[in-house]
Amino acid sequence: MQISAFVDGELPDAEADLLLRRMSQDAELRKKAAEYLDIGRAMRGEASVRGVERLQARVAASIDDKPLADEEVAAEAPAGRSMRPLVGVAVAASVALVAIFGLQIMPGVNSTNEVASDAAVAEIVEDPGYTVPQPVDEQLKQFYLSHGASSSELGANGMNTRLVTLRLSQEVLPEEELDDTAAEEAADETPTQP
Amino acid sequence: MHFPRINTLIWPALIAGQLGCSAAALAERVDPNELLRRMGPAVQMTSYEGTVIRIQNGKAEALKVVHTVTDGVIREKVVAQEGDGLEIIRNGNEVHCILPDSKSVLVEEWDDQSTLFSTLPSSEVRFGSEYDVSFVREERVAGRPAVLVAIRPHDGFRYGHRIWLDTETAFPLQTQLISEDGTAIEQVKFADISLNKEIHASALAPSIDTASFRWLNQPSGHAKHDVEADWESNDLPPGFRVVSTHGETLPGSEEVVTHILYSDGLANVSVFVASQDKASAAGPSRVGGSNSYSASVDGHRITAVGEVPAMTVEQIATTMSLR
Prior knowledge:
The structure holds 2 protein chains of 2 kinds. By secondary structure, chain A is an all-alpha fold.
């Protein structure tokens, strides 16, 4: 099956490009691809889709490349031939990937209303992965914060723990403020010398 | 002046050919455990500047990071590039967390050895018999050659890790927390990085004027004192053991909560024993890659929290009992 080969990253580039072009124009094909894949996992970035990863890299590289002016293409014809179709692939791949997987795994690609209303994307909202409840009471938040501090002391989960717990902290900011003098002293101690 | 471009589609074939020839030889000479041992000091002692992409629950977040070490003093700065614009500025043990949305600066004290990036527990038994460590392959991350090391758990009670270590310095260029079905729950990777470069002082200064912000002492806690553990799990998942037990007073409450920290050497689970509050919720919850489960046992609220699968915290919380 062509789609499965694509997902596994085993579809030759030329065929992958062709498949993506067809997907960008064929809603039925996109739907089939969406059904084949575990979309919820892909949306959360939990799926390792080798074909997509390869294409993402190629698309990102293509998008980052500035468009070649006509005279540049003319001046370096061999490179120009390789660039032009690649840019075309980038557009097709962007449309298809956004339609199938949503924007979360395609940073740098702008959304469109048409894409957002795509049925395949709409299904993702109902993925049960998003229904796991967040902490609802202050005590539970404090438990997360305390655990984060303890884990960091053991050397684990450095940045992720810090960021997650810091954002939880914002919701439970303490009332105790430093007095003006302490604030000035603290500000003066802000690092400036490496 | 124009340089000839190599057709992009040729690269995968060239790289695949190179890898095919060298992967087996590399696997023989790369000791993944040795690389992991070098990783801890590399995280703490390497100066670097770069852009980190953090992916969690399908959401990507870009962060600018700067880290330098001078005379043993760690200085760090992390700035979120979108969303709340959070800034974390560390000077030795003192950390200022600048929260532009709430016009606040939290002042915290951090442990000397704690860094923004993950290190692994230094215990000799950190992997015990619960994990396998193996070399997977060579890849490039952030433009640098890297070695992918996999830490695979033997059962579903803990997550796995995939770590891409810089071949030259053992610095972790990319890390993934892997669920039991092999998918990435959390991912942190450098999009670009400069290692061991001279960091200018201005790179570590706040990029926001905080003169009019509220300055707050972040209560690092959670006042603690050691206590005897009178609670234990009668069906603790294999490999976990008690690391510490202490009484803890959480902010906003007078109550002393018992905090038992379990670890399998890599994954940590905290169990909190508090008095039962009618308003407190029972059941599961999740923040990022961390799960928690609260249960009522003998008039107490038992809550297990950890970077482990949901079934692990549920099993621990529901099997706690008084000795």
